[in-house]
């Protein structure tokens, strides 16, 4: 599976760790994609995407789309705001990298069809996301602040 990371903002990110988060999300969900493209952006860019594709004029933490990489190949695009992730990380007391990994896992799960619109589905997604963070384990721990 191809994972591509595009860093379109100024905060330091660890691209291989973020790619591993996408791979782990697929593994814990027991599903596959042929490709995942991840864009790490600022609030301005994600607000533009949110406005164009979701008719919401505000920044958000993550937006995910299912796509075709090539005809017949299932792919996904995950767009994450590092600015929003940074604020959320500070609120819960973990690193920016941990929050980005969590958001990437969340986005990949959405691409796979998982939803979080009610308590049951939200609890299922939360459990899968926590399994992703646990699987990243020591690699993620080195980025805790």
Question: Care to describe what's here?
Answer:
The protein is an alpha/beta fold and 145 residues long. It has one domain: Collagenase (Catalytic Domain). It is 53% helix and 19% strand. Strands 1-2-4-3 form a four-stranded mixed β-sheet. Helix 1 packs across helix 4 and helix 4 (96-111) packs across helix 5 (119-141). It is globular and about 40 Å long.
CATH class: Alpha Beta
According to DSSP, the number of beta strands is 4
**H/E element string?**
EHEHEEHHH
Question: Based on helices, strands and strand pairing, what is the structural class?
Answer: alpha/beta
Looking at the structure, the CATH topology is Collagenase (Catalytic Domain)
- Rg from alpha-carbon coordinates: 14 Å
What's the total helix number? 5
Q: Helix proportion of residues, in percent?
A: 40-55%
């Amino acid at each position: 599976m191809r994972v591509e990371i595009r860093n379109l903002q100024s905060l330091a990110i660890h691209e291989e760790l973020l790619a591993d988060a996408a791979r782990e999300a697929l593994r814990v969900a027991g599903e596959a994609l042929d490709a995942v493209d991840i864009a790490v952006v600022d609030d301005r860019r994600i607000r533009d995407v949110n406005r164009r594709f979701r008719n919401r004029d505000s920044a958000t933490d993550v937006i995910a789309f299912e796509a075709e990489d090539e005809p017949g190949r299932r792919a996904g695009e995950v767009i994450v705001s590092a600015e929003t992730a940074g604020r959320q990380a500070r609120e819960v007391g973990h690193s920016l990298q941990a929050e980005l990994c969590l958001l990437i896992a969340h986005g990949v799960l959405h691409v796979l069809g998982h939803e979080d619109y009610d308590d049951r589905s939200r609890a299922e997604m939360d459990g899968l996301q926590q399994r992703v963070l646990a699987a990243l384990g020591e690699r993620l721990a080195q980025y805790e602040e």
